[in-house]
Design brief:
- The complex is a heterodimer of chains A (1083) and B (357).
- Helices cover 37% and strands 19% of the residues of chain A.
- Chain A is globular.
- Chain B is of the alpha/beta class and 357 residues long.
- Chain B folds into two domains: 139 residues, 3-Layer(bba) Sandwich (Glucose Oxidase, domain 1), CATH 3.50.30; 197 residues, Rossmann fold.
- In chain B, 18% of the residues lie in helices and 33% in strands.
- Chain B has eight helices and 24 strands.
- An eight-stranded mixed β-sheet of chain B has the order 14-16-15-17-18-24-23-21, with helices on both faces. Chain B has a seven-stranded mixed beta barrel with strand order 1-2-12-9-4-3-13.
- In chain B, helix 6 packs across helix 7.
- Chain B is globular.
- Chain B starts with a strand and ends with a helix.
- The chains are: A alpha/beta (1083), B alpha/beta (357).
- At the A-B interface, helix 9 and helix 16 of A face helix 3 and strand 19 of B.
Chain lengths: 1083, 357
């Protein structure tokens, strides 16, 4: 596949990736790793990459020389080192995962043993920044201030230390206890209480000076080995200290620091990075006292981070690329500013715009999630908005979230009273921004909000401008704009969308647009150039604003272009895979001689890199904005590679006569619209689970009788597939229909027969003129009832017969023929008793496309793009795969306190990995070890099997466990069943049986087991069963396992495959092969 | 109220007035600094100029109360007054937020009778200046047909200089016992503060006074920054020659750098649109070490004309223009940038320590 003619003189560098996307470690590390690879290749290095994240660009062909889809753990990295013999290793481009792994390898002497040099920041700097005490000491030595604090082991010690610190003080308890008992004490009395409570459950607490109400500021700092230092960007958090920066709205550059503060903190950042001897990039976080400019360093991250990715996108400065060059020993003054291609990389970007980052949460997708934000990260993605004012940027950002907000003030939030809103403002949650603005609308004063939240008055005053305009618009009329166009212009300058204005004035979005264009109120294009216009720049990087009279970018009408709409913010269900698709589309368009226009708003992506597309619009993925861009660029549009957002826009764009490349918009609609699609299937005589729609409880009950329980329900046209559920009885249905947040008259309930025990498959393909030219069938390891995004995918399908696979292909061919598909598509099948039912069809690239492309070594997106361009593409004939590939989901339940880790019909995974192997067991073990599972060492396991079906199903696996020498602990029912079947097991006390030892708590808290298998008896759904689920033992056990970091299985399918694989392979037996080694077996 | 910026190329830019409601003439220049508007506006080097901020939000942290360190020495501004003749911004923050803020940016401008316009596409204006070079401009509250007279900026240095002799002493604990004559061509107070922090006693003298005429014994001479064309300061150049002949240690900053160059026989020229910002990268020619600097100048030293006996100290990494000179043998040096920062970084404030030793 790749040219193997690598010169032996080329130095080999090992790069560690960050693995699957998880909360706190997301797509930003695909950006940083990809940039690092490009920089290394430019310097003539050979790059070996270890990263199991199959959906990333960095693990694509043409970048790294060798790719290992293996866990980023010391065991596997050592294996690769032994095999590849690299001379250097880069640890700072793969997040905390890579850094932790690197530290372990350094400490255990592996790097020394194999003579592998750590490039960039020395390991001691990493160790010092990770250890609170060492860190404070080192910085204090050069006169820099860190938050004073220490670990306290008794209440007396705490009281004494508090006197030293002075009140108020902050008390923190450990994470494993759920952080309960943390708090601020303003006086001795309160502290005494807090300490007493804390020491009742915890052996130690941390006591530190309280930085409550202080501004939170970050700087991104770069240093080379010759000690040249710059700070590329600073950023200010909307919320003061206390809300994790990943959970906070962040603004770049800082807005409320004066010159003295700005440059004082810059100097401190540089002094710190010099003292720590960091080579490359680091992030430094401060607390700044708003009353006297005093500061504390909160922490230093000696690696590329989410903030550095944001800084890079916010300024245009390619931080990761430069950091990689510096790690190789290059110096900043010798490197070029890639944006101007004239000036030096040693400089600090000057911005002439404002950047606002807003986190994207998806907490309502989880059962038991607590919607509160604080010192831990819960958001799954983010958006970045650019404007010439804060108001313009933040309103764009609100829309970019794709969470139903048309702006910071939205009709949808107008129900609550002033009192309710004031209460809500006190408790930060994922709707904070919107709550604050609604509170303003209801007359809560800025002073009051400032008192409650500590948010700087500057931000509040700006938000108030928006609220005031909203109220002004409410009182004006649409016709008045003709006489007073300045009002409309002001609204646009404050970031109001046409739809938002239309909503206020009861007009259609199109009416506002038409009038606006008639009045010549149009946005202009501005370029991001790192130098605020001081030097001419060659950058692709653009945004739109209403604060301008002149566009920086005037398209050349002769240039042949195509526009690609990206995936938007990462959320549950939309992840890095769509970025992979977008980037591959751009690359294919380029290869075919077209100029490319990329539209996206997610800073954690490669598609928004400075060197990806010819024109990058960092913009809202809304109809209005895309039409604005269409008006400027006049280039046809690709809507099928960015997931659901562009897919949903397709029909609307077509209505506005925007030419779409690929499948016709009307056919996209025919597949999307449930009724039309169902009719189509009936006409084609293709089976589908029986279904119907209900608007009232009566209708629903009647339908339910026809369908028979269990029934899969979901409201139609509700955002992001929320509220999907499996109902088992009429009682469930009653409760479901009684929910207040969905108007079933407006969004009829779609009810379909739930086929339990069916096999689910993903059929991914590319079609040209309605004929399939490439396809792959992946089978889900889990039975029905688990969302496809949470399923383990096997390719080749492990359980489907050849004839069934051929049958699926024939069914798919009929559907794509009828829809005249030109481009990518995905069909989901259920196979039960040799009948294949179609459950869904999407005429767009799917989540599994990178996985099947990389497994089959056929780039589906490249083919699809060429189809869209009208090129005749040669069909691919697939041979039998001589290896097994699996895609394994990554969950982030540990970051979401209280959530039940059980798998449901609603998706909850945040990422995925792929593993290749000689067989299913080999691949699956590696996939699990790359996600949430650790190899067993203690040979002990906790088993709790709910329901007789799962007990029977798991019996043989228990036999395997015993043969391997495992001790099986179990709950009484499970143990009884096992004993009856001749398997030795030890019964342990239930959680509440605190007198009985060992009980479940002991096993989990003391971590005396390797993993837990806790299978719920029935399908559990957050919506329906929440009321009585809280107290079940199963939930408590599962949650406790997550809190104590113990791997947990909640489906029998996963657990059985894992145990069977363990029985077959020792860790040492697992294959360590590069991707190219597997691919070479194909040809 | 509407306000208009008339440009010498015929262009008229409309916006909202937020400063003094009157007229102003000046050279239209831009600065790329994202902070430091109070420092910039009080920098006397901006005398004669209408300043365009490329950063769109100006006035965010308001304007602090003036704190005096000494008579004729301000702690938290660069001089006692605003020197720019006019200000152009995209968006003015009418509701500043900072514990030190005492008045709004707008109120401050009104106090010093400085007209200002907001709501301007400052990026488009910056592009124009970049392409056409600095232009003459006029701010007016009225629609007029301006008659353009050439701007006479030959006297700006004498306007910017205090034109009286003032002495400043460092805190006793810091004192080095040395006295420096500071030729004030429009000195930023930050330079005086930095020199005092380094323990020097300062005798600030008018731009056209010969430091050798001072009765006091002096250990060195510092020539400050200032506005305008260095060639208009013939008398200062003559004094510098005498200082060099007297073998006194010498440091020039900004205009002082250009004046040293002219004094030793090198040439200066006008840059098309100058360097104004806080992010200008400079490199030490010898050590290759790079520093980020604060700059505000429209003229530059012609690197090709530097005579023997002198060497280049720093160059600008963006456009390779001259950023510093020094004698190969004597304690004579100058820098084009502002080592005191204010606004801007302090990467090079070690220069105050290193010189005059």
């Amino acid at each position: 596949m790749k040219s193997k003619k690598v010169l032996s003189t080329q130095e080999k560098i090992l790069l560690l990736g960050s693995g699957a996307l998880k909360i706190g470690e997301a797509g930003e590390f695909d950006y940083s790793g990809t940039q690092a690879i490009k920089a290394l290749k430019e310097e003539g290095k050979q790059v070996i990459l270890i990263n199991p994240n199959v959906a990333t660009i960095q693990t694509s062909e043409g970048l790294a020389d060798e790719i290992y889809f293996l866990p980023v753990t010391p065991f596997f990295v050592e294996k690769v080192i032994k095999k590849e013999k690299p001379s250097g290793i880069l640890l700072s481009f793969g997040g905390q995962t890579a850094l932790n792994c690197g530290m372990e390898l350094a400490k255990s002497g592996v790097l020394e043993k194999y003579n592998v040099r750590i490039l960039g920041t020395p390991i001691q700097a990493v160790i010092d920044t990770e250890d609170r005490e060492l860190f404070s000491k080192r910085l204090a030595k050069i006169g820099l201030k860190t938050a004073k604090g220490k670990i306290i082991t008794s209440a007396e010690e705490g009281m004494q230390f508090a006197e030293e610190l002075g009140f108020p003080v902050m008390l923190r308890t450990g994470f494993a206890l759920g952080g309960t008992g943390s708090g601020v004490a303003r006086d001795r009395e309160t502290l005494q209480k807090l300490l007493t409570n804390a020491f009742a459950t915890a052996p130690q607490v941390i006591l530190e000076e309280s930085l409550e109400g202080w501004k939170e500021i970050e700087y991104e700092v770069v240093r080379d080995q010759a000690d040249n230092c710059i700070t590329v960007c600073n950023m200010e958090n909307f919320d003061p200290v206390g809300i994790h920066t990943g959970e906070s709205i962040v603004i770049a550059p800082s807005q409320t620091l004066n010159n003295h503060e700005y440059f004082l903190l810059r100097q401190v950042a540089i002094d710190a990075i010099r003292e720590l001897k960091i080579v490359g990039e680091c992030n430094i976080q401060y607390a700044v006292n708003p009353k006297n400019s005093d500061y504390r360093i909160i922490e230093v991250n000696a690696r590329l981070s989410r903030s550095s990715a944001l800084a890079s996108k916010a300024t245009g400065y390619p931080l990761a690329y430069i950091a990689a060059k510096l790690a190789l020993g290059k110096n900043l003054p010798d490197l070029q500013n890639l944006i101007t291609q004239k000036t030096s990389a040693f400089f600090e970007p000057a911005l002439d715009y404002v950047v606002v980052k807003i986190p994207r949460w998806d907490l309502d997708k989880y059962s038991h999630a607590i919607n509160e934000i604080g010192s831990e990260m819960k958001s799954v993605g983010e958006v970045m908005a650019i404007g010439r004012t804060f108001e313009e940027a933040i309103q764009k950002g609100a829309r970019m979230l794709n969470d139903g907000y048309e702006g910071v003030l939205d009709k949808a939030f107008s129900q609550e009273t002033r009192k309710q809103l004031t209460e809500k403002v006190k408790k930060p949650n994922s709707m904070r921004l919107f709550t604050i603005c609604s509170a303003m609308r209801e007359g809560v004063t800025l002073e009051q909000i400032h008192q409650i939240t500590g948010i700087d008055m500057w931000f509040l005053a700006k938000l108030k401008h928006i609220v005031a305009m909203y109220q002004k618009l409410s009182k004006s009329s649409f016709v008045s704009f003709e006489k007073n166009p300045d009002l409309l212009l002001s609204a646009k300058q404050l970031g109001f969308s046409d739809r938002q204005i239309g909503g206020i004035l009861k007009k259609k979005e199109d009416d506002v647009r038409t009038l606006r264009k008639k009045l010549r109120i149009l946005p202009v294009v501005k370029r991001i150039d790192t130098m605020a216009g001081e030097f001419p720049a060659k950058t692709n990087y653009l945004y739109l604003t209403y604060h301008g009279t002149e566009s920086d970018h005037v398209p050349n009408a002769k240039e042949k272009k195509a526009m690609v709409i990206g995936g938007g913010p990462y959320s549950i269900g939309t992840s890095v895979e769509f970025d992979w698709c977008a980037v591959n589309t751009i690359q294919t368009l380029k290869k075919n001689g077209l100029s490319t226009v990329m539209i996206n708003c997610n800073p954690e992506t490669v598609s928004t890199d400075y060197d990806n597309s010819d024109y990058l619009y960092f913009e809202v993925l809304s109809l209005e904005r895309i039409l604005d861009i269409w008006d400027i660029e006049q280039s046809p549009c690709v809507v099928s590679v960015g997931g659901q957002i562009p897919n949903n826009l397709a029909p609307k764009l077509a209505t506005h006569r925007v030419p779409l490349l690929g499948t016709k918009a009307e056919n996209i609609y025919r597949a999307e619209d449930r009724k039309t699609f169902s009719k189509l299937l009936d006409n084609l005589k293709i089976p589908q689970p029986t279904w119907g729609e209900a608007r009232t409880l009566k209708q629903a009950k009647e339908l339910a009788v026809k369908l028979d329980y269990p029934i899969l329900v979901r409201p139609s046209f509700v955002l992001s597939g929320r509220a999907m559920s499996v109902l088992e009885s009429e009682k469930n249905l009653d409760r479901y229909m009684s929910r207040k947040d969905i108007d079933f008259k407006e969004h009829p309930l779609v009810m379909s027969r739930f086929l339990s025990d069916a096999t689910e498959c993903d059929f991914d393909g590319v079609s040209q003129d309605g004929k399939i030219i490439a396809y792959a069938i992946s089978e889900h390891l889990e039975g029905g009832g688990v969302h496809s995004g949470d399923s383990t995918l096997t390719l080749p399908a492990v359980g489907l017969s050849r004839s069934m696979q051929d049958h699926l292909r024939d069914v798919a061919a009929k559907i794509v023929g009828a829809l005249d598909v030109n481009g990518p598509f995905n069909i989901q099948f259920l196979v039960l008793n040799d009948v294949a039912y179609v459950i869904e069809c999407n005429l767009r690239a799917s989540r599994s496309l990178p996985f099947v492309s990389k497994t089959l070594h056929v780039n589906f997106i490249q083919m699809a793009t060429e189809v869209m361009l009208g090129k005749k593409v040669k069909p691919v004939t697939l041979t039998k795969l001589p290896f097994q590939a699996v895609k394994v989901p990554q969950f982030s339940f540990h970051k979401l306190r209280g959530t039940d880790p059980v798998l449901r019909v609603e998706m909850s995974s945040t990422g995925e990995v792929a593993a290749f192997g000689k067989d299913m067991h080999d691949a699956y073990l590696k996939g699990l070890y790359a996600t949430n599972v650790k190899p067993p060492q203690k040979k002990a396991v906790l088993v709790s099997l709910g329901g007789s079906k799962s007990k029977l199903r798991f019996l043989s696996s228990c036999g395997h466990l015993i043969q391997m020498g495992f001790t099986i602990f179990g709950t009484s029912g499970t143990v009884l069943f096992l004993k009856e079947n001749g398997i030795a097991a030890t019964a342990v006390g239930k959680i509440q049986e605190t007198q009985k030892h060992p009980n479940v708590t002991d096993l989990l808290a003391l971590r005396s087991i390797d993993f837990a298998i806790v299978i719920p008896g029935r399908y559990k759904n957050n919506e329906v069963e929440q009321l009585y689920l809280d107290n079940t033992d199963g939930y408590t056990m599962r949650r406790m396992a997550i809190d104590f970091g113990i791997p947990i299985f909640t489906t029998v399918d996963n657990a059985a495959h894992f145990v069977d694989a363990l029985a077959k392979y020792e860790l040492e037996d697992l294959e360590v092969k590069s991707w190219s080694e597997y691919m070479s077996q194909l040809h | 109220m509407k306000a208009y910026l008339y440009l010498a190329d015929g262009d008229v830019i409309e916006g909202e007035s937020f400063g003094y409601e009157g007229e102003a003439d000046g050279e239209v220049v831009f600065s790329t600094g994202m902070t430091g508007y109070t420092e910039s506006l009080t920098d006397p080097s901006f005398a004669g100029q209408i300043l365009v901020f490329t950063y769109p939000l100006i006035g965010n942290y308001g304007v602090p109360k003036v704190v005096m360190q000494d008579s004729h020495l301000v702690v938290n501004f660069e001089s006692e007054r605003i020197w720019t003749r006019g200000v152009i911004v995209c968006n003015e923050a009418a509701e500043p937020s900072h514990y030190q803020s005492q008045q709004t940016f707008s109120a401050w401008l009104k106090k010093f009778k400085v007209p200002a316009i907001s709501g301007v596409d400052t990026r488009a204006l910056t592009h124009k200046i970049r392409e056409k070079g600095v232009l003459q401009g006029k701010i007016s509250m009225r629609k007029i047909a301006p008659k353009w007279k050439p701007l006479d900026l030959t006297k700006v240095v004498s306007e910017a200089s205090l034109n009286q002799v003032v002495q400043y002493s460092p805190e006793k604990s810091l004192s080095s016992g040395k006295t420096i004559a500071l030729i004030d061509c429009g000195v930023k107070h930050g330079i005086i503060r930095e020199m005092l922090n380094n323990g020097y006693k300062i005798i600030r003298i008018p731009w056209d006074m010969n430091p050798l005429d001072l009765k006091e014994k002096i250990d060195g001479v510092l020539v400050s920054n200032g506005p305008g064309d260095p060639k208009d300061c013939e008398i200062t150049i003559q004094h510098i020659r005498e200082v060099l002949n007297a073998k006194l240690p010498f440091l020039g900053i900004c205009l002082g750098h250009q004046l040293l160059a002219l004094a030793i026989g090198a040439n200066t020229y006008k840059l098309p649109y100058g360097h104004r910002g806080l992010n200008q990268p400079c490199q030490d020619v010898l050590t290759k070490k790079a520093y980020l600097t604060s700059q505000n100048h429209g003229y530059a030293v012609d690197r090709a004309t530097i005579p023997s006996g002198f060497e280049e100290w720093f160059i600008n990494l963006n456009d390779q223009t001259s950023e510093g000179l020094r004698s190969k043998t004597k304690n004579i040096a100058s820098v084009q940038f502002h080592p005191e920062g204010q606004p801007g970084p302090f990467d090079t404030n070690w220069i105050f320590k290193k010189l005059m030793k």
